[in-house]
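Example A, followed by Example B.
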Amino acid sequence: MKTYKKKIIVTDEKTTPQARAMRLKMVRNMANLSREAMCADGKININTYKGWEIGRYGGLPLDGAELVVERITKEGVVCSIEWLIYEIGRGAYVSADFKNAQNTQKNKKIKTTTADLKTKSQEKLIFNEILLFRKQFPDVLDCQILDDGLSPKLVVGDFVAGVKYHDKAIDKLLNQDCIVQLLDGEIVVRRLRKDHEQNTYMLLCTNQETTVDTPVVYNVKISSAAPILRHYKKIKQC
């Protein structure tokens, strides 16, 4: 049986074997793969993989996640190792034009530049700082900025993190830029205002030239919100 040695140290509920297993099953389903098909190339042992999906023996390790990401990429599913293991950054999604991208890769020699290596180093530093923040506080919201709703204060590619407020305590964050978790689990970053209906809020984009389709959303019920206590700037290519 193949062995996978890079085990993950659990720091919070997002890094438990069960949480990693849930994300692993999700990306496999997105790739429309059975467990057998996931392991068909022989790089992952099928029995070990089954253990990862039920969180057995410490769950999905780092080197296993690398192989999973490599496999699902071939099916057009885009997912970072950091999200699969730590739920940091953008979640997994299906690339509509991945076949074109694959053809481009075949016809193009890829070179790893000094700028690429520097960017990866900066990304690793950010992920480590977010993990440290999670260790310091037990109830953290963190995410990557994916739109220009709060630009230029927060731009696409930035990372933010904060400590959750629940129930009536959320009102302490009114008129602030917050990380907001909706009832369905989605996380957005918006200016938080109180709305007219009971226990509902208004989420606003402060950028008057935003490309967001709905700059103001009314009557939103949320499960938690967090002030932005950590802001990690967008990584710039040299």
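Example B, a separate protein, is given below in the same form.
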Amino acid sequence: MRNWYVVTGGPSAGKTMLIEALAGRGMHVEHESARIVIDRWMTAGKTIQEIRADEAVFQDEVYQHKLLREQRLDPKELIFFDRGMQDTYAYNRLFGVPITADMQEAMDGAEYKKVFLLEPFAYEEDYARTESSAQRDELFGLLREAYERSHVPVVTVPAFVTKEERIDYLFQYLRDVEGLPMQA
């Protein structure tokens, strides 16, 4: 079993905030592949509309980035991912993109200790988001389905009033349930 955890949820769920908080505590984090792909293309002069014009091509590029990254990482190292392989299933389903046999095999073979599925916060737009708030809500269910069908334990992280409460909740869970050295 890999010593890896996933933080996931729909757009604007607070994933990046939690990943940054984990990094701030010295944890190894891997940032969201979609953002890395988007940022690379935007640096090359493309707009978000151009990048996402062909959703199948975009989703495949994100999938390939995740696949290559996980192949190079040490499965024994404690790592927190901003989205995991199974997010491919959810996004492809949302956008009607076929899931190839190779993709399904990679998703089924991607083992994580746990996935933390974040309940949605109020939707906030940013430069890389094209999904609507309705799609964000649909993604929440698709993400749960994706990880459960791959037999990855899912822990739902509630949408607290403040982001700090969510950080505290996750850190307490990691310390008390997972036995990780998280500071109070």
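On Example B: The chain has one domain: 4-176.
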